[in-house]
Amino acid sequence: MRTSTDRMITRIKSIYLYIKKRGTVTTGELVDEFGITQRTIQRDLNVLEYNELVCSPSRGAWTTTARKVKAS
């Protein structure tokens, strides 16, 4: 059984890879794609933003940064 931390890390990684693939996405698109609440998406985006992996060039839109990431 996976812990809640494992699920969270997997979800955040999936969100990052989705944004990287799409280029720029809105928070609403992420809510629809992942089927989780806007609040949860926002928390996950805050983690990614804190780690300088995504940024918000305009309100509600997200894109990845140039920071190199090793995703396994």
Tell me what the structure shows.
With 72 residues, this protein is α+β, with helices and mostly antiparallel strands. It has one domain: Winged helix-like DNA-binding domain superfamily/Winged helix DNA-binding domain (Arc Repressor Mutant, subunit A, Orthogonal Bundle), CATH 1.10.10. 56% of the residues lie in helices and 17% in strands. The chain has 3 helices and 3 strands. The protein has a 3-stranded antiparallel beta sheet with strand order 1-3-2. Helix 1 crosses helix 3. It starts with a helix and ends in an 8-residue tail after the last strand. The model has no long low-confidence stretch (mean pLDDT 91). This is DeoR family transcriptional regulator. GO terms for molecular function: DNA-binding transcription factor activity. Pfam families: HTH_DeoR. Keywords: Transcription, Transcription regulation.
CATH topology (level 3) name: Arc Repressor Mutant, subunit A
Which secondary-structure class do the elements indicate? alpha+beta
Any idea what the CATH architecture is? Orthogonal Bundle
Strand content: 15-25%
- How is the largest sheet built, in terms of strand order? 1-3-2
Descriptive keywords:
72 residues, alpha+beta, Arc Repressor Mutant, subunit A, 3-stranded antiparallel β-sheet, 56% helix, globular
